[in-house]
Amino acid sequence: MLKGDTLDLSYNKFTYESFRESRCQMEETNLFASFSTDSTSKEVSCLGNNVCTANSTSLYINCGGSKLSIEDKLYEEDLNAGGSSHFSSTDQRWGFSMTGHYLDDDQSIDSYIVTTTSTAPVNTYELYSTAQSSALSLTYYSFCMLNGSYNVSLHFAEIVFTDDKTYSSLGRRVFDIYIQGVLVEKDFDISDRAGGARKVLVTTYTVNVTTSLEIRLYWAGKGTINIPSRGVYGPLISAISIDPNFQVPQKDGHLPKHESGVSVVTVVGIVVGAICLIVLILGALWWLGYLRHGDTNEAELNGVTGTFTLRQIKAATNNFDVANKIGEGGFGSVYKGVLPDGTVIAVKQLSSKSRQGNREFLNELGMISALQHPHLVKLHGCCIEGNQLLLAYEYMENNSLARALFGPERWQLELDWPTRYRICIGIARGLAYLHEESRLKIVHRDIKATNVLLDKNLDAKISDFGLAKLDEEDNTHISTRIAGTYGYMAPEYALRGYLTDKADVYSYGIVLLEIVSGMANTVDGTKENHFILLDRAIASKNTGDLMELVDPRLDSEYDVQEVMVVTNLALHCTTVSPSERPTMSSVVSMLEGRILPRDFVVEHNLSITQMERDKMINQLEAMNASEVVNMSHPYTDTSESVVDLYPDDLYDEYLQNEYLQKRDDDGKKAVT
């Protein structure tokens, strides 16, 4: 055995005591922790733990590197090259055991110390420029330590692989970590945990130590073995730091004089004096008015989402420069901004005259910050300072679906049929998430074309959650004050305040008709208060000519079958009875072709009866203007909309004159 070539017998349970030696390394044989008493007592006998001349309370090792001083810590050097069966110790304080041969790596001599020349954080560059590695097992053992609780910090940086587009970026190093024989990390991947290669990662564990501390990194056969080069990629570590969680006594066994020599009376006097000083400072700040703005809004916002300071928002928008103003709504002004990291945002500034008010602001913030979905507008954060209420959303390059379809010609987008169909599916997925998939079941209450925004890829995202309501599973419906947009509200909600998720389904059906036809569901105020688009769709269904609804701008370049599916689905969604409307998950399935849609039957000649229509009009006209949006301006959303991104004056003038006159004329001709 003594003449063996790199023989590793570590971590065995030998019982033949006469063979037992006091050394952990004999020639090329590693005997570290190789006897049964080692695993029983949790102390490695070959280290000579019973002859400690002094106990240490901290340890810092620069694995694979030279002695290094960082802040107030002195990291000891660890330049021992190691080997496939190796143990070494330093100054009778610590040592390491290494096991494993780098097979099939085309290298004549194994190299266990890894170095890099790549950049790293300046203040710790040297600490992470080297690392100790092993093909199989790497154990650091600290002995002669004072009993107590310690924070054990393991420092990592993946300096072998890269984080670029080269072949080296495909490598993966996966290993397990044991401390005091307990598995603390399973399948540990440095790059994955650090967020990429060449990035620093420090993991800290609280450990109770009795004389000795063992840290073991073990490769369990996972990760890559041929990428980026042939060989094994076992455990790797850059540094170890061990700090006590207790007051370190002086050499005479007593606590430091400044902590043990102070009388109780002195301590009490210091504490009382400090409390009095804090009270005086807080009183002065309150008197000066600095603490008087912490109203209930701020308490309600606490922990809801990310926050920005007013200074950050001003910097992003160039102090709310008018050149960055991109819209005006009932919520207030909207500004385009750019964060320091280059993220483009849309900042909503609550107007002091806003009809939305603080309640809707908090509702919007609370709802959308709890929701994350590709088809919901992302909220980056908020700002509340004094009387300033600001929301920062992701910037949507192509504004709203309403402007793309109904806006002035210079702002309209050429939406081909595949894009429109994709928008239909996107809105449906967003609503299905709100109704059925999210942890919070939510009814939006204000689904309409102005609240569907389009990103740079023309993907649809639902916005404006200021009117949204939680739909608790135990409730059959929600009775609430009526709020929303006239022309999109379901009859049962507009008439009786009876709110379920089927109210959103009705609104979605109206939006589908708008997408197919390219026209808004405006009110014909001159003739029996009809909704021009919905009545036109029902009339076309009854005459068997649904294709007459299709937007002429599509020039017959559309899939007839898909148009029929969307139009029939829209009529199904807008039936008077809520129970007959489909769920949004089934809508998604039908649009994606996973469920065959049936030919929906319209059981009435009009969307609702004339009596119901007159009753609804009378009720709506009697409501406060802040509770419901009149459809005389169907796509400006100048009341509750939190996400109105339209420029104000020119667009409003266009809406009040050209568009409404043109659409009314077209609608009357179609109904006739």
UniProtKB/TrEMBL annotation:
Reaction catalysis annotation: L-seryl-[protein] + ATP = O-phospho-L-seryl-[protein] + ADP + H(+); L-threonyl-[protein] + ATP = O-phospho-L-threonyl-[protein] + ADP + H(+)
Record-linked InterPro entries: Kinase-like_dom_sf, LRR_Rcpt-Like_S/T_Kinase, Malectin_dom, Prot_kinase_dom, Protein_kinase_ATP_BS, Ser-Thr/Tyr_kinase_cat_dom, Ser/Thr_kinase_AS
Domain Protein kinase: 320-601
Binding site for ATP: K348
Topology with respect to the bilayer: Single-pass type I membrane protein
SUPFAM superfamilies (alphabetical): Protein kinase-like (PK-like) (SSF56112)
Enzyme class: transferase
GO molecular function, one term: protein serine/threonine kinase activity
Enzyme Commission designation: 2.7.11.1
Compartments (UniProt record): Membrane
Keyword list, A-Z: ATP-binding, Glycoprotein, Kinase, Leucine-rich repeat, Membrane, Nucleotide-binding, Phosphoprotein, Receptor, Repeat, Serine/threonine-protein kinase, Signal, Transferase, Transmembrane, Transmembrane helix
GO cellular component, one term: membrane
Protein name, entry field: non-specific serine/threonine protein kinase
Source species: Tanacetum cinerariifolium (Dalmatian daisy)
